[in-house]
Each structure stands twice: as structure tokens, then as C-alpha cells.
Amino acid sequence: MNSTSETSNGSARSRRINDFADCRNIAHGAVFIIASGNSAKDFPIREFAGIPMITVNGAISMFMETGIEPFFYACTDTSFSKQQPELFAYAMRISQRVALWGNQAEELAVEPTGDLYLLKKAPKPTLTEWLLRIDKDLVRNRAVLGSRNRSIGFSKNLANGFFDARTVLYLALQIACHAGFSKVFLVGADMNQSAGRFYETDGSSISPCGLDQHFHSRILPSLKLMSEKVVGSKFAVYNLSPTSRIPSSVIPVKTLDEVKAIIQS
Length: 265
Known about the structure:
Layout: E1 2-6, E2 12-16, E3 30-34, E4 53-56, E5 72-74, H1 80-83, H2 85-94, E6 97-100, H3 102-106, E7 115-118, H4 127-132, E8 138-140, E9 153-155, H5 168-179, E10 183-187, H6 211-229, E11 236-239, H7 256-264
Parallel strand pairs: 3-4, 3-10, 4-5, 5-6, 6-7, 10-11
Antiparallel strand pairs: 1-2, 8-9
């Protein structure tokens, strides 16, 4: 579909908005998700240039001067484009696909070169939907009705919305599943707020971080749900971060040599 918005000088411009149904099950095999944790600095990204990659927020800086175009770029931080305008503009220019909130798309200073998709959260289920689990693509927590944990889930079809776990990494995992990838490797998934992000340095703009605030209440329960109800023979997830807060019982940790073997298997 097409969307029309106004530029800063008042002139109208037309922007094509793609439907998430258009990119469902278009891929297969392995994909890397490049996140912002410090351990990402040790990942030899050029060595895996032939494998599709999904990246988020400022982790796009890992792609500079590599010639690698992300399969998907996702950003849910509405202030990121203002705090890191150069990185955000770079992501718009080189990514094959971009996922943003609608208000982010309306304020774009640089038009995406690739396909643009608008994010929406998965709707709250009705009592009947919750009891009967009518939509099999929206995997929900079976918590007691009225519990805050009812909103925890995992979307296999982003046309129906996604579940927010207070970390954009979780959105990237849902994108990987939606697109059809079966082997997902997490890079920089440290979940260590005190260690900071690999692309932030002294003197640079530091974006707010809520990892410590939400890790035990939201992030970890969401990852556990994915591990228990989504991961299986058709969708496997591995963690390359040796210092990750995510327990290996939830997402197993693998070395680079092990990753290479899994990709080739």
C-alpha cells in the first residue's frame, strides 16, 4: 500500500508501505541477529557475509565498510533517530527491509532504500481467543486471566502484530521466525546494561537502556516462552555471547566453530 505524508516544507510525498504478509516465509536456513552487546565486537562479520543478517538500533554500525546489506533492520526506540541520526540514516540507506513504528516512518529524514514495514503490537485476546487459542501464529503465555504475564507471547506472523519484551532483540527473533529462517544465531546478546553497547564511546550520545529494569520481569520470561513453545526442529536459536545473562538452558551458547558446523549441517 502507499502512504502520503508531508515533508518539513509542507510538500506531500508518497511512500510505499509494505505488508508483513509480503515477507513471510521468503527465507530459509541460517540467519544472524546482530545486537548491540559488547561481545559483538569479537564477531568476524565479514567471514559470514554470505549468511543473511538481521540487525537492530545502533548495531547497524557493525556493517559499515563491510559491503553487507542487512536482510532486515528493526528499530523500536523512537528517540534513536535523534540520538544517533547518522547511524539511523545509514540503516535506512543500506538495509533490504526496515521495520519501524508508524510515527517513526512519518518523521523519516532519509527515505529507506529497501522495503518499509510498519510495526504493530499483537492485539489483546478476547476471553474466547485466550481460552481456545484460535490464532496459532500468536503463541501466548497461558497465565491466569488478568495477570500481567498474559501479554507475554511470540508472534510467528507479524502481519498479526508482535509481542514487545522491552528489548528489540525479541522483535528480531520474531522477524526471523516470520521470514522463515530455521537456524538463528544471536550476536551481541549480552543483556548486560553495565557493559554498555559496543558502538557507544566516551563523548558519544548514550541512548537510555532498560535491560536491568525489565530483564527478570519481561525479557527472560519472553525468552523462556519462546524456548519452550516455539523452538523446535523447524526453529532453533543459539547464542554466541559467552558473557550473556540469558541462561544456556534457555538459549544454548555456541562457539564460532560450532556455529559453522550447524550452518553446514
